[in-house]
Amino acid sequence: TPAMRSELAQQIPPAVLDMHAHWLPLRLAVYQREMAKSMQPKVGRNDPCPCGSGAKFKKCCGAAADLH
Fold first, then answer.
1. pLDDT at position 1, please?
2. Hey, is 37 helix, strand or coil?
3. Which residues does UniProt call coiled coil (predicted)?
4. Other C-beta atoms within 10 Å of 57: how many?
């Protein structure tokens, strides 16, 4: 009915605000983590590995799928 449609339409804005508030902490955490990653200097292939092994990055963590 038109009355039900109008009532449901009025419930949408507060529901959207509630959803935004619910997911905001997660979005901020992801954003901060990505910013922290991008702020780290890039390790060159021939630089010492940041894991502290003393080996070149390309022979240590640079050869692996991800850093340890």
1. 93
2. helix
3. none
4. 19
